Amino acid sequence: NKVFNYIVGKIAGGEKLHFTLIDPDKVSRLDELEKLMDIASSAGTDAFLIGGSTSVTPEEAGATAEVLKKSGLPVVVFPGNLNCLTPKADAVLFMVLMNTMEPYYLMQVQVLAAPLIRKYGLETIPTGYIVFNTDTAVGHIGRVYSIPYSKPELVLAYALAAEMMGFKLLYLEAGSGAQSHIPPAFPGIVKKHTELITMVGGGIRSPDAALELIRAGADIIVTGTIMEKDPERGVNIIKTIKKYRG
Ligand code: 1GP
């Protein structure tokens, strides 16, 4: 449980965490990847996630992990599907897409993945995954049925179910490249009523947005697109999160 203990240890020490998501399909040149890695790690990011909803090959995931490992930070697969799994990573978010209409994402893909993960020797972090925006790649591919933004009590019902099923982490996701991030009330209500580690991502484009979500109760903020499009802004987000003390 090396990666999980690293996360828990930092949170217990009063830190808020930032994870940098790399989609190997979008950052395909390894020299560019190395540059992004250096920028994010010098700014203080706490870990790297590797994932993508569409056409990531196992070779690309592996090559990406190999480069990211040079940072000395944990490298965690955030799998869109089996193709993202690689033995080169340290851990995998072992996820259930809780609000999908597609049985494959509820249990079948996990059954297919489990023996591979065992063979690869990857640490697993049991994660409930809720996607809020159907108008994104993950919303479409994952056949998500939306949860109204005006109903935090529904989010809490999912969070309680996640906790009762033994998940350790809850990932509240607007979808990569979403127009806007999720409402702060969502991590707020989860934090207030559960012990889950709350991770928030999708559409976070400014230090203020990150701060708002953290103040509400998010433990971990994930950004992907901003680091690819505007690294300077990405660095400001990371630094703001790492400076925060509640
Ligand atoms: C996607 O939440 C992450 O899973 C990151 O989203 O690319 O919009 O930062 P962005």
Layout of helices and strands, plus pairs?
Elements: H1 2-12, E1 17-22, H2 30-43, E2 47-50, H3 58-69, E3 75-77, E4 91-97, H4 103-120, E5 123-131, H5 137-141, H6 152-164, E6 169-173, H7 185-193, E7 197-201, H8 207-216, E8 220-223, H9 225-229, H10 231-243
Parallel strand pairs: 1-2, 1-8, 2-3, 3-4, 4-5, 5-6, 6-7, 7-8
Helix pairs in contact: 2-3, 2-10, 6-7, 7-8, 8-10
The protein binds SN-glycerol-1-phosphate.
Structural features:
alpha/beta, 8 strands, TIM Barrel, 246 residues, 10 helices, binds SN-glycerol-1-phosphate, globular, eight-stranded parallel barrel
CATH topology: TIM Barrel
What hetero molecules are in the model? SN-glycerol-1-phosphate
Write down the secondary-structure element order: HEHEHEEHEHHEHEHEHH
Query: Roughly what percent helix?
Result: 40-55%
Could you state the CATH homologous superfamily? Answer: FMN-linked oxidoreductases
- Tally of discrete structural domains: 1
Strands, count: 8
Radius of gyration: 16 Å
Shape: globular
Q: Which class do the helix and strand fractions yield?
A: alpha/beta
Largest sheet: 8 strands, parallel, barrel
* CATH architecture level-2 label: Alpha-Beta Barrel
Straight-line N-to-C gap? 27 Å
Strand content: 15-25%
> Please, how many helices?
10
- Tell me, rounded to a whole number, the average pLDDT: 96
Just give the CATH class: Alpha Beta
Low-confidence stretches: none
Arrangement of strands in the largest sheet: 1-2-3-4-5-6-7-8
Explain this structure to me?
By secondary structure, the chain is α/β, with parallel strands linked by helices. The protein has one domain (2-243): TIM Barrel. 45% of the residues lie in helices and 17% in strands. It has 10 helices and 8 strands. Strands 1-2-3-4-5-6-7-8 form an 8-stranded parallel beta barrel, surrounded by 8 helices. Strand 2 (47-50), helix 3 and strand 3 (75-77) form a beta-alpha-beta unit. It is globular, with a radius of gyration of 16 Å. The mean pLDDT is 96. The chain binds SN-glycerol-1-phosphate (1GP). SN-glycerol-1-phosphate (1GP) binds at residues 21, 173, 176-178, 201-204, 222-226. SN-glycerol-1-phosphate is lined by residues 21, 173, 176-178, 201-204, 222-226.
